[in-house]
Design goal:
Length: 348
C-alpha cells in the first residue's frame, strides 16, 4: 500500500510483522456475519457426497468459490510466504492475489517476491495489485495495469482503495482527485480485467455502482470486522485514535447492500473482511456474494505451517460449507445463495 517512496519495502516489512504478531482486530465491530444464523431444514434431501463446490472466476474453473486475498511482496520475508500461499492456491485450484506491486515499480530488488506466485501457481487465476493513489496519479492508467499484469503474468489486476489507511500513514495524504476517471480509463483500455477492493473499511452500494459503471469486473468489499488497517498504521506510527479505529462498513452490510446490483449489472461480488470459517463463507454466499476471500488468517497459517497448513484450513472451511448446505437443503451454490438467514435476535 502507498506511502513515501524511499521506504516502501521497509513499510511492507512492518505491515507483515504487525499483522503476524500484534492484535489488529476491531475493538467493537465484527464483520456482521456472526449476527446471522441459517434456517435449519429438517426436511433436507441434499446428498452431502454429491455437493459440487466448483465455480467460475475470470473464465476459469476453480474448485471453491474462494480466493487468497492480495497481501504481500516487496520484501525479503515475503518471498517464502508468497511461495507457500501460491503452492496452496495451486493445490486447491483457487485464485490468488499478490500484494501491492508498487515496490517493484520503484526498483527491481524484490521483484521475485511477486513473480514467485505465478511460478508456483501456474494454473490458477493470479491477480496483480496496485493502490488507488498510483492509479489516480498515473497519466496512463491502462498502461500501468498492463505493466503490472505483464510483470507477474497475471490474469487480472486489483486496484485497492484505502483512504482510511492512508489517513493514518505518516506520509502525506495522496491526492485522490480524478480516481474514478482513471479507473474508468484503466477498464476501457487495459488488456486484462480490473477488479477493485477495499482493505478493511468496506465498499458502499453507491461506490460499487460507480465502479461497475466504470467497467470494473469484480468488487471485493473487504469490509470492516477483520484486519483493521487504521489500527495497523496507528501501531506503526505509535499514535491512537479510538473513533477511527472502529470506522468502516461491515462485511455483511456491504454484501447485503451491493448484491441487489447484480439484478441489473454483470459483475462478481467477493466477500472479504474477517472471513475465518466455513460459516462465514456460507453466510456470505447466502447474503448474495459470489465468492469469499481471506487475508490475515491465511498469512498467519502460511507463516506457521506453510502451504500444507493453508490447504488444510481452507479444506476444513469448505467441509463445513458442505455440512451447512446439507443442513439447509442446498444441493449447489446457487441454492445456497437462496437459503434463508435469520437475524439472531429473531430466534428469541
Ligand atoms: C500483511 C498484509 C498485507 C496486505 N497488503 C495488501 C496490499 O498490498 N494490497 C491490497 O489490496 N490489500 C492488502 N491487504 C489487505 C487484504 O487484502 C484484505 O483486504 C484485508 O486484510 C481484510 O481481509 P482480512 O480481514 O481477511 O485480513 C493486506 C493484508 C495483510 C494482512
Amino acid at each position: 500500500m502507498p506511502g513515501s517512496k524511499e521506504n516502501t519495502s521497509e513499510r511492507k516489512k512492518e505491515h507483515l510483522e504487525i499483522c503476524l504478531k500484534k492484535d489488529v482486530s476491531f475493538k467493537y465491530k465484527t464483520n456482521g456475519l456472526d449476527k446471522y444464523e441459517f434456517e435449519h431444514n429438517a426436511l433436507t434431501e441434499t446428498d452431502i457426497n454429491k455437493i459440487d463446490l466448483s465455480s467460475k472466476f475470470l473464465q476459469c474453473r476453480i474448485n471453491y468459490p474462494f480466493l487468497i486475498s492480495c497481501m504481500t511482496g516487496g520484501t525479503y520475508e515475503s518471498v517464502n510466504i508468497n511461495k507457500q500461499l501460491a503452492l496452496a492456491a495451486e493445490r486447491l485450484n483457487i485464485p490468488i492475489g499478490v500484494g501491492s506491486q508498487r515496490q517493484a515499480l520503484e526498483n527491481k530488488e524484490f521483484i521475485n517476491s511477486f513473480k514467485v506466485i505465478r511460478e508456483y501457481a501456474g494454473n490458477v487465476p493470479v491477480l496483480g495489485n496496485i493502490g488507488a493513489a498510483q492509479v489516480a496519479e498515473s497519466v496512463n492508467p491502462a498502461g500501468l495495469i498492463d505493466n503490472l499484469a505483464k510483470m507477474i503474468d497475471a490474469d487480472a489486476v486489483v486496484i485497492h482503495l484505502n483512504p482510511l489507511q492512508e489517513l493514518f500513514q505518516k506520509a502525506p495524504l495522496p491526492n485522490f482527485k480524478g480516481l474514478l476517471k482513471s479507473i474508468e480509463k484503466a477498464c476501457a483500455k487495459s488488456k486484462v480485467p480490473v477488479i477493485v477492493k477495499e482493505v478493511g473499511a468496506g465498499i458502499s452500494a453507491s461506490a460499487a455502482l460507480k465502479l461497475i459503471n466504470a467497467g470494473v469486473k469484480a468488487i471485493d468489499v473487504a469490509g470492516a470486522g477483520g484486519t483493521n488497517w487504521a489500527a495497523v498504521e496507528m501501531i506503526r506510527n505509535k499514535n491512537n485514535n479510538e473513533y477511527f479505529k472502529d470506522w468502516g462498513l461491515t462485511t455483511s452490510y456491504c454484501i447485503k447492500e451491493i448484491a441487489p446490483l447484480k439484478k441489473k449489472h454483470k459483475f462478481t461480488l467477493i466477500a472479504s473482511g474477517g472471513i475465518s470459517s466455513g460459516a462465514d463463507i456460507a453466510k456470505s454466499i447466502a447474503l448474495g456474494a459470489d465468492m469469499a476471500a481471506s487475508a490475515n488468517v491465511l498469512l498467519k497459517r502460511a507463516a506457521a505451517d506453510g502451504a500444507d497448513g493453508v490447504v488444510e484450513l481452507i479444506e476444513e472451511w469448505f467441509n463445513d460449507v458442505k455440512k451447512i448446505m446439507f443442513l439447509t437443503g442446498a444441493d449447489n451454490l446457487k441454492e445456497l445463495s437462496k437459503v434463508k438467514l435469520i437475524k439472531k435476535e429473531e430466534m428469541y
